[in-house]
Amino acid sequence: MARQTGELALSIGTSLAIESIFNKSASPEQVKTVANATKIMISVSTLFRNCLESHRKDDEFTARDLAAIIAQEMDLIDEECKKKLSRKIEPMYYYALTSKFQSQYPYAVWRDRNTERWRNRMAMEEEVMQYLVREHEVKYGEYSDLSFNYDRYDSGLIITHLPHELLRFTDFPELSLVESHTGAFKSRSAWYTKLTDGKSIAPIPFCLLTLAAFGDAIMFKPQPAARQVILNIAKESGWRGDSSMKLIRDSVGRYRAKPGEDKSLVVKLLNMEK
Description:
alpha/beta; Rossmann fold; six-stranded mixed β-sheet
């Protein structure tokens, strides 16, 4: 099976992210971020996506084929980290299930993925994960139940294409998202760019409230009425990309809705936050 790979013989999207971590010619800030990292977390769902999309559309392969490739990639990433990182960090691989999301987040609106193509893709992904979980050390379980064993002294990197997975780490002391394909590093204050049309707005905090209101490209559908109220609150209260949940709650509580606005949905979305 021919597929597109990068300099590290990984699927192109994965390779560019990993290459960026090892890039000693990157900006001083990025080099320092990598040097200070004590944990690297990698979504196996992202490895699957990158592997799948590195193949030509007419390629034929089985779940076992993809699992074997991804397993090799995980081994290669581990080896490269041992050789090239100043700290000895073993990447932590995880696969987070979301079957409880609809009950946990009752006021969110979900993107419709009920197509044959999507169902086939998810069936393939789940089969691949079952192979990998049996043969490799992968944290596997419900999103809210996974433990990553970090404390207030940790600094980390995460590779994931799924914005909702970042919610699990909003209290991680220092965490940078490393994007597939571009290798761009994004600190928490820039995670708002993962929201729908996020690159066109002023910085706001990335949290369950903003994700459920603005939506993303994968799971959450935008709720325009709540989005506009939040933008008004953010402007009035001077929100930034790194504003705290305390400021968010206080701002929402103080805000007086303008004529035609309905703040009640914003309050409901905010109260989904544990």
